[in-house]
Design a protein that fits this description.
Order of helices and strands: HHHHHHEHEHHHHEEHHHHH
Distance between the termini: 23 Å
Largest sheet: 2 strands, parallel
Mean pLDDT: 92
Structural class: mainly alpha
Helix content: 40-55%
Radius of gyration: 20 Å
Oligomer: single chain
Number of strands: 4
Strand content: under 5%
Low-confidence stretches: none
Length: about 325
């Protein structure tokens, strides 16, 4: 397989993965979604989509449509927190999305939209590009909000091709839990504890994106309420666990679900994409390509996928990277 062939296969598989995740949450799509035990992380998905969906304007705008229908269940504070932790993001594109939400929907997005405005004026470039990093089209009528963030695109027009998220699949469990436990760190904390028999505060903080102090407060409240127990060791070395996890699972239609660390997974997948999308790499020899993959894994990805929670990607390495498109189609 040539470098270009791998790039094209990887691009299609990665785009299909993003389509499947959004379709599982209520976007109308033609990608077969299949069965999956993996819970979707809406904020991590939105961050990655703000960058990668620039290759697909239809999906990009459907994401905004979905947010308008389901925004009650999106934690803007967590989105901001995660945006400061991820490596693969497009701050200007995310700014356009949240600014559009602020205009068409709720004011809760305005502060983040203002924070993401470019510090200095810059020349506007095309928002939508193809895998060769070239502009997809020319727009006669320009979206004024996009211009503020340095992008050229046709005005966003809402559609009716999205629905409220479904409640009978694993993908939406985090959103369902927010409906039950509120839009705080409780849902992520309980979901993490359901996936791990015992956890330290830092374990929950790492996957949730919330601060150590926020998770500590939530665990103290849940412990006081009798939902969570602790081994009562030293303050920073305590392990926490759910006393009756089966009772919490009983609240939901889906009983089996896995909550991966999508922030780290999308970062790793994004790093690989940025590497193979580099035009200078396309025409290099296979040997040089493999050498570059080895460097990327050693210096940038490391062991991020080893304990991120997805078995299909757990042992991905430079020697197995050409099989990545096939692995992604299983997620």
């Amino acid at each position: 397989m040539s470098v270009r062939e791998f790039r094209d296969e990887y691009f299609n598989a990665l785009l299909n993965l993003i389509w499947r995740q959004w379709t599982r949450l209520g976007i109308a799509g033609q990608i077969p979604i299949g069965d999956s035990p993996y819970v979707v992380d809406p904020e991590a998905l939105l961050l990655f989509s703000s960058s990668f969906c620039r290759y697909d304007q239809r999906l990009y705008d459907l994401v905004i449509d979905w947010l308008r229908v389901n925004e009650t269940f999106i934690n803007v504070q967590r989105l901001k927190s995660l945006s400061g932790k991820v490596r693969q993001k497009d701050a200007a594109s995310l700014g356009f999305i949240v600014a559009t939400m602020s205009k068409f929907s709720s004011r809760k997005w305005k502060k983040l939209a203002d924070d993401l405005l470019p510090v200095k004026p810059c020349k506007a470039v095309s928002m939508f590009i193809n895998p060769d990093q070239k502009s997809q089209d020319f727009c006669r009528e320009k979206d004024k909000i996009a211009m503020q963030y340095g992008y050229l695109r046709t005005p966003y027009l809402p559609t009716n091709k999205v629905t409220a998220f479904p409640t009978d699949i694993s993908a939406s469990i985090l959103l369902q839990m927010r409906g039950v436990f509120g839009l705080s760190a409780r849902a992520e904390t309980i979901l993490t504890l359901l996936n791990k028999e015992i956890c330290k505060i830092q374990d929950v903080a790492d996957i949730s994106g919330f601060s150590w102090k926020s998770i500590q407060d939530v665990l103290m409240e849940l412990t006081a309420g009798g939902l969570v127990a602790t081994d009562a060791k030293a303050k920073r070395g305590r392990y926490y666990y759910l006393k009756s996890p089966e009772k919490i699972r009983y609240l939901f239609d889906v009983k089996h679900f896995i909550f991966p660390d999508w922030r780290r997974i999308f970062d790793a997948l994004g790093i690989l994409w940025q590497t193979v999308a580099n035009p200078r790499l396309i025409d290099l020899s296979k040997q040089t390509f493999h050498s570059e993959m080895a460097r990327v894994f050693e210096e940038e990805i490391g062991e991020n996928l080893l304990d991120a929670g997805i078995n299909e990607l757990k042992f991905l390495n430079p020697e197995k990277v050409t099989g990545l498109p096939e692995l992604l189609e299983k997620l």
